[in-house]
Each structure stands twice: as structure tokens, then as C-alpha cells.
Amino acid sequence: MGKQGSITYRQWLDNEYRLWTEALQESTANNFKEHTMVKRMLSEDVEFPLELRPELSMDELERIAVIDQIGRSSAGITDVAWRMVYYADLILRREPSSLVEIGGGVGEFYAVIGALGYRGDYYIYDLPDVSKFQIKYLAEVEWQTGLHLPVGILHHEFCVSFYALGEFDDDTKDWYIKNVLKECPHGMIAWNPHSGASEEIPFECEVMEQYDGSKLLTW
User: Fold this and answer.
1) CATH code at 188?
2) Which domain, by its residues, includes 177?
3) pTM passes above 0.90
4) Are 80 and 38 in contact (CB under 8 A)?
5) Which of 36, 37, 66, 89 could cross-link 23 (Cys pair, CB 3.0–4.6 Å)?
6) What per-residue string of b and e applies to 108-144 under the rule 16 or more CB within 10 Å gives b?
């Protein structure tokens, strides 16, 4: 397991999650994207290639713009949101009947894929305090867009995780592999371990290099 200076990777990661949950506790669904820690966790400095942006209808563009603006004062669709649209489009082509997401952040990916037409069951595995914020955020999305986004699932058919799983410490990662991934017949994971996380991919999947040097894992 990697180290950050004199602390273990698990200790470093726990501190990162502590700062993340504290940032959400200090914020509301209407201003959380203005928080420095939230900006860092959402990778606001990401540049998403124009050529990879899926074509959207005017209705879809309007819904994505509304969803993306919730939590910040500036208007327009950010590169972070376009990245979510890109993954949502890839997943929708697989036509999953149910989705389980590992590390769902505030729930914005769920809102985005719902805005693009997904209507199946959805469940998010996350930290308790983050899950509480997801409820508030998704309620705001429903109020502003009219989308109905109930979080709940009876079975796992398709697993998704965008960068979170690769960042976990080995014990946490192993739990999700055993209890979630191996229960899902299909899945798609954006994989980009950093800051000391193990780069090993300890489950059977197809690996494809992505535009930014990370890997896309599918099964």
C-alpha cells in the first residue's frame, strides 16, 4: 500500500473524504460547487475534448445546463458535465435495466443520465454524510427539471464507477469487488489510480486506454 510522506495511503484517503464531507456539510445544494474542496474533488480543471462530446437535442442540452448550474453561480455547461454526458451516452448504448454506482459524489451523474433518458433502477454506494447531501441535491434537480430520480434498486445488473473505485485503499476496493462488481453481470468503470493507490486491476474485464491516459474497464 502506498504512502503519502509518513502516513499510509488509507490515512491520507480518509482525510480526503473527511474534508469532502465537511465541505458538503458547510454548503447547500445551491452553492456547493463554489467550495474549494468540492472544486478539487470534481476536478474542475479538467478539459474535455470537443470531438468526444455526444450530440444532444435542444431539450437534453437545456436539462444538462440546468443540472450543471445547480450548486454554482455561473451559467453554461462545464467540461466536468460534458465528461459525465460522455460516459452516460456510452452506458445508455448498453441499455442497462438497473445501475449501481460506487462513489456517486453529489448524485450529478445520476441526474445527467436521467436527463438523457435513463429510467431504470439506480443505487449509489457512498459515505453516509455524502448520501444525505445526494438526497438534497437530487431533490433540487427534480424541482428545477421535473425529472423523477428515485434512488433504490432491487438487483445489480450494471455497475458504474467514475474514478472512485481506483482511488480506494485495497481493503475497501476488495469489498466492493466481492460484494458489488462480482454480483453485476455487466459494468463500466473509469479507472485512474493516483496518490498512492494500487494500479492493479484485480478483476476480469476488458481494458481500453482513454483520451486522458486513464483506463476504461468494461465487462
Assistant:
1) 3.40.50
2) 3-218
3) no
4) no
5) 37
6) bbbbbbbbbebeebbbbbbeeebeebbebbbebbeee
Three-state secondary structure call for residue 21? helix
> Confidence class of residue 45 from pLDDT cuts 50, 70 and 90?
confident
Spatial distance between the Cα atoms of 137 and 147, rounded to a whole number of angstroms: 12
If one compares 217 and 150, the residue with the highest pLDDT of the two is: 217
Number of domains into which the chain is organized: 1
- Whether 4 contacts 112, CB under 8 Å: no
155 or 70, greater pLDDT: 70
The pLDDT-based confidence of 5 (bands split at 50, 70, 90) is low
Q: Could you list the beta-strand ranges (E) of the chain.
A: 3-4, 7-8, 98-102, 121-125, 158-162, 186-191, 206-209, 215-218
E strand or H helix at 14? helix 9-25
Q: Which residues pair with 121 in a beta bridge?
A: 98
Can you read off the three cell numbers belonging to residue 182? Answer: 462480482
Confidence category of residue 1, pLDDT binned at 50, 70, 90 = very low
d(CA 82, CA 55): 11
- Please compute the mean of the pLDDT values over residues 92-100 and round it to a whole number: 96
